[in-house]
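Entry type: protein chain
Record version: 2
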Amino acid sequence: MGALEGKVAVISGGTSGIGAQAARLFVSEGATVVVGGRREREGKALVMKLGERARFVPADVTVESSVENLIGDAATQFGRLDIVINNAGIGGNPPGGLERIDLERFWAVLAVHVGGVLAGMKYAARVMLGQGSGSIVNTASTGGRLGGWTGTDYSAAKAAVIQLTRSAAIELGEHGIRVNSVSPGPVPTGIFGKAAGMDPAAADRTAIRLEPAFLAALESYQPIRRAGTSGDVAQVMLWLASDASSFVNGQDIAVDGGITAGRPISVSLAERKKLAAAFAALT
């Protein structure tokens, strides 16, 4: 018996990357999954592979009626709603250059990451309050915890997601509904290529080739010496969605190889040796 046997889940931003991996995992654990996303071809191809317990519904999280339709479809078709994963995302302005930031892009990032999450929670709550149960998981980011890892707009949006999660958790927890967030660290997914202007499908296909660059860039920051994967994040989403986390509410869980905990000790020790040598040279 799977961890989500008999449960109904909605995953927005589910056509690629972390969302698609979560859809695969949830179906394998017994859930019926409604995948929402803007790319109809990719969404239909995914659910065809997942089988009869998967369904695709076109959805744009920046359009409130679209979110209402996505969640309403799941509740109507399957009679209940146990899990909502608010995962849709886009890339923002590049880090640095605050004086040149594109405000139109800034508002677009907030519309997806903040407005989309809020809309997802709004319509999930309408169904779950009637049931007296449910689990909502929002995708945040280590960029919402630490400055300098992502662009200013993306970082601000993800910080807002973490706070939205807490606020919803204390309101809905009294009614048996849990709300938590997951903060992935740098994970090679198509969002990086899409933000750089690549064709979305091509960005998804080539994302795995970014792994060596990620490892090189993270050497001084990430204690666990490998690149994170969509599967790492999906596993934490699974736990938060399942009854195994029934006493966890209002939390943000970092899935970042230890980045937010601190630098690798080997890096700190190497720097101390250099300082010691510099002092020795002076004396």
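Comment: The chain has a mean pLDDT of 91.
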